[in-house]
From TrEMBL:
Full protein name: 3-deoxy-8-phosphooctulonate synthase
GO cellular component: cytoplasm
One Gene Ontology molecular-function label: 3-deoxy-8-phosphooctulonate synthase activity
Keyword Manganese recorded: no
Subcellular location per the Swiss-Prot or TrEMBL entry: Cytoplasm
Protein species of origin: Croceibacter atlanticus (strain ATCC BAA-628 / JCM 21780 / CIP 108009 / IAM 15332 / KCTC 12090 / HTCC2559)
Highest taxon listed in the record's lineage: Bacteria
SUPFAM superfamilies: Aldolase
EC number: 2.5.1.55
InterPro entries on file: Aldolase_TIM, DAHP1/KDSA, KDO8P_synthase
Family, similarity comment: Belongs to the KdsA family.
Signal peptide limits: none
Domain DAHP synthetase I/KDSA per the UniProt entry, residue ranges: 13-268
Record-linked Pfam families: DAHP_synth_1
């Protein structure tokens, strides 16, 4: 995959990591624009290639009364507005084959959720749109097995594919990141570390996923040191009241200091 082929992506010659960041789900136009404006400001200063992330709907929920979205086309139009307003590419996840063509009309990157990355028809549908495809490694999959998911995309005639590690299940209610998997998956495609989902604590008795946002700095720094190509960070200006995954999101007020330190670390890693 070539970063400079992603529409509107800036700073691709900076030799910095690239960033997929934004809220877990699109809650409203105001919240999406507010988050995007701040992240664009930070990433332009630090010369980080930036892709705005937001789910237009959430399908993998623990409870039937969990927030799933504000309406598919309404949320997708907000993603398009973010892209047009700030001149940045966008990414959203899809869950059904029909989502691929629909979402491709509005965003630049289609993301396959970790639970669904073995669904061949879904992966192929995303690939055939011609959009960049981001394959999230299943919590139940080895790094080596992701080569087959990548091959499904390339065999469909699409070479624009990346892989994202979001941790591996450790017991019932915890995730771990095996950093040995980073160089392994980099053999198949550019590799991203999903920092915030790797700190989830799923399967809580309440039916609401927990998290360890206090460990975001640690996991992100370890990812940069391990040589990841990009980072994935969900962020919100009010995580406690976010409608989805608030327990593991980064408070937006801390993003600038985190990315500043990670950029400095990346410069050191680049010298090796």
């Amino acid at each position: 995959m070539k970063l400079d082929l992603i529409p509107r992506l800036k700073h691709t010659d900076s030799n910095n990591f690239f960033l997929l960041a934004g809220p877990c789900a699109i809650e409203s136009e105001d919240m999406a624009l507010r988050i995007a404006e701040r992240v664009v400001e930070i990433t332009n200063t630090l010369k980080i290639p930036y892709i705005f992330k937001g789910s237009f709907k959430k399908a993998n929920r623990s409870r039937i009364d969990s927030f799933t979205g504000i309406g598919d086309e309404k949320a997708l139009k907000i993603l398009k507005k973010v892209s047009d307003t700030f001149d940045v590419p966008t990414v959203t996840d899809i869950h059904e084959n029909s989502d691929a063509a629909l979402a491709a009309e509005y965003v630049d990157i289609l993301q396959i959720p970790a639970f669904l990355v073995r669904q061949t028809d879904l992966v192929v549908a995303a690939a055939k749109t011609g959009k960049v495809v981001n394959l999230k490694k299943g919590q139940f999959m080895s790094p080596e097995s992701m080569q087959h998911a990548v091959k499904k995309v390339t065999d469909s005639g699409n070479n624009q594919v990346m892989v994202t590690d979001r941790g591996t299940m450790f017991g019932y209610q915890d995730m771990v990141v095996d950093f040995r998997g980073i160089p392994t998956m980099k053999q198949y495609a550019p590799t991203v570390l999903d920092v915030t989902h790797s700190l989830q604590q799923p399967n809580q008795t309440s039916g609401v996923t927990g998290g360890r946002p206090d460990m975001i700095n640690t996991i992100a720094r370890a990812g940069i040191a391990a040589g990841v190509d990009g980072l994935f960070i969900e962020t919100h200006f009010d995580p406690a009241n976010a409608k989805s995954d608030g327990a593991n999101m980064l408070d937006l007020q801390y993003l600038e200091s985190l990315l500043t330190n990670l950029t400095k670390l990346r410069q050191v890693v680049n010298t090796f």
